TrEMBL record:
GO terms for cellular component: AP-type membrane coat adaptor complex; cytosol; late endosome; lysosome. One of its GO terms (biological process) is protein transport. The lineage of its organism: Eukaryota, Viridiplantae, Streptophyta, Embryophyta, Tracheophyta. It comes from Acorus calamus (Sweet flag). This is MHD domain-containing protein. Belongs to the adaptor complexes medium subunit family.
């Protein structure tokens, strides 16, 4: 069972009712046969460990609701706390149990274990995918849930991590869950490929298996592709964009017919083959014609079901995302990393091979490299790596990489916030942008956002040295560089002192809960010093959720705003080069068989989680090992 096969999948609504489900009888038959073989070769009664039959929708929904009620949320604790009981996922004391869960099915008085259940939350839906594993794996997991201790430190040989390493189907199940979530919420995202000769280029879904779009299909009707703009529109804050996604996901009903068609086409008989939604939709809409059949001597790859016809060209974009944690402290070093990818669009007729060498691997300190299935790496060197690939249609990610920033932080400085009273704070920003950066690198825009999900802003006072300010109920946004006023070839200093006032806390909303929960937790607690931190965190987390019950759910998911953590988030976009040094010469791109196709090349970098931690407050960090 080394390949990935899916036994069943379910989509649950916010009220824990099943709105869609699909079972695969062929895979379920294989599961029953495996159970029978295990039962015949074992002296122990197999039904104590595994469930031969899948639950119906009501049984599944009831088990899921029971888990939420027992563990406080759908994902559960993830680590062993005082509320954990033997036989629960959190008893294993591994955070992966927040994503690979088990459900106890109660059928006519008999209880059965359903595992491994991959859980993916998208919008307000929960997607559950159950892959096919061996019965011995389920038995091993159930033994872990009953062990008094866990992990190698406790002398346990088999851990959850070692068990999951034997199950590559878990990865496949996550891929299925993610694409199902994207389909039901309408979140289909292309890798951006910038075109300098036209305002937009066609592109379709960048799925977890690689994306393909369809721009021109012979002389038949062409499927409509979602356009990819030549440049992204800045100015939208991170919170605003997420809220719009959440609203979109709630207002979009599930198209069950399209979902059934996709599942039947992408994973016939329960085995995922092609998870590209747009590709399968186009095949259904347009079918195939005789002009799509390649020469008999040429084998057509699975990632290119159609042959392109039209004007030929190639577009490459190196897109880097910068992640940073800036502390401005002597005892905590700043961290800066880059996640990059080479996006490509090859509008080439036939089935040509494309090759080019990449440069800057040594200077960029590349740590991780991964490639699209269409790529081969025939030549590797210290500072050069040659790529050869047979490109699919549309926009796709040719290569992913992880690297260090060779130019230093594009935004450096500090952020300080001091609460002078319970409801009033004084803050100060002192930043320096693009220090050490030379033309043609250009920062197109830069925005700093101070989020306050737990507090409501009622007044604000401050004058920045540059830029404009806007506020909302739960954030303050500082636009240092507005769109269309880029900075190139020089550095920019920016300071921003100010004060901010918040609405008074309304603790009286949940007084009874705090007392009752504390009393119950103390009664259960025996090791007061070890476990009390978990208890207080749980109380604080529950109180904060109740205090902010009128906020959108997305705000409550900000991971670092609980307790005393304060930070500012930077967003920016830099064009004209890469921050890692990764590059290649467009003139070195060769196409076989040789054709006249112009090569368009662009480079850009944008901010991911670029965090300025409050220098005067608490902040999380990872301790570096001492050499």
């Amino acid at each position: 069972m080394s390949e990935c096969s899916i036994r069943a999948m379910w989509i649950l609504s916010p009220n824990d009712s099943v709105v869609f489900s699909r079972r695969f009888p062929v895979v379920e038959r294989r599961w029953r046969q495996a159970c029978q073989r295990e039962k015949e070769s074992s002296d122990r009664d197999l039904h104590k460990y595994v469930l031969p039959l899948l639950p119906n929708d009501l049984e599944l929904a009831s088990a899921f609701a029971d888990r939420k009620q027992r563990d406080g949320s759908a994902r559960g604790f993830g680590i062993r706390v005082s509320q954990s009981i033997a036989g629960s996922d959190s008893w294993i004391d591994d955070p992966i149990t927040r994503h690979v869960i088990s459900l106890c099915i109660n059928r006519e008085g008999d209880k059965y274990l359903l595992w491994p259940m991959v859980l993916h939350a998208k919008g307000y839906y929960n997607i559950l995918v159950l892959p096919l594993v061996e019965p011995r794996h389920v038995k091993a997991y159930e033994r872990m849930r009953s062990c008094p201790d866990c992990g190698h430190s406790a002398g346990v040989e088999c851990t959850l991590s070692s068990l999951l390493l034997e199950l590559p189907c878990i990865t496949g199940a996550f891929m299925v869950a993610h694409i199902i979530g994207d389909i039901i919420t309408g979140d289909v995202v292309d890798p951006e490929v910038v075109s300098s000769s036209s305002p937009s280029v066609g592109g379709l879904l960048d799925s977890l298996t690689g994306s393909i779009g369809i721009s021109s299909i012979s002389a038949r009707a062409k499927p409509v592709a979602a356009p990819v703009a030549a440049s992204t529109t800045p100015g939208m804050t991170a919170t605003g964009s997420v809220i719009s996604d959440a609203q979109k996901s709630t207002s979009r009903p599930i198209d069950k017919d399209s979902l059934r068609t996709f599942i039947s086409s992408s994973m016939p008989f329960g085995t995922p083959l092609d998870l590209n939604y747009s590709n399968l939709t186009a095949i259904k809409a347009t079918g195939f014609s005789t002009s799509d059949v390649p020469h008999a001597d040429i084998k057509q790859p699975a990632w290119k079901p159609y042959l392109y016809k039209g004007k030929q060209r190639m577009l490459f974009t190196i897109h880097e995302v910068v992640y940073a944690a800036m502390y401005d402290r002597d005892d905590i070093p700043d961290t800066l990393s880059i996640s990059g990818q080479i996006n490509c669009r090859a509008e080439l007729e036939g089935l040509p091979d494309v090759s080019f060498p990449t440069t800057g691997l040594t200077s960029a300190h590349i740590e991780v490299l991964s490639f699209h299935p269409c790529a081969q790496v025939p030549e590797q060197g210290i500072d050069k790596q040659s790529l050869m690939f047979s490109p699919p249609l549309g926009n796709f990610v040719l290569m992913h990489y992880q690297a260090f920033c060779t130019l230093g932080p594009p935004v450096k400085g500090f952020y300080q916030l001091s609460m002078v009273s319970e409801d009033e704070g004084a803050f100060l920003f002192r930043l320096r942008l693009m220090e050490g950066y030379k033309a043609p690198l250009t920062m197109e825009y830069c925005t700093v956002t101070m989020p306050f999900p737990r507090r409501r802003v009622i007044s604000f006072d401050g004058n920045p040295s540059v830029g404009t300010i806007s506020t909302s109920e739960h954030s303050v946004e500082w636009k240092i560089i507005a769109s269309g006023k880029g900075v190139s070839g020089k550095s920019l200093e920016a300071t921003f002192p100010g004060t901010i006032r918040f609405a008074p806390r309304q603790i009286n909303r949940v007084p009874s809960f705090s007392t009752s929960v504390q009393r119950s937790l103390v009664d259960e607690d025996s090791d007061t010093e070890t476990e009390s931190s978990y208890n207080m965190n749980n109380i604080e987390e529950f109180l904060m959720e109740k205090l902010n019950k009128d906020l959108p759910a997305v705000d409550l998911e900000e991971p670092f705003c609980w307790q005393a953590y304060n930070y500012a988030k930077v967003s920016f976009k830099i064009v004209g080069g890469t921050l890692s040094g990764m590059s290649f010469d467009p003139k070195s791109v060769s196409i076989y068989p040789s054709v006249r196709a112009p090569i368009e090349f662009s480079m850009q970098a944008s901010a991911g989680d670029y965090i300025l931690w409050n220098t005067l407050g608490k902040c999380p960090f990872v301790a570096s090992p001492k050499v």
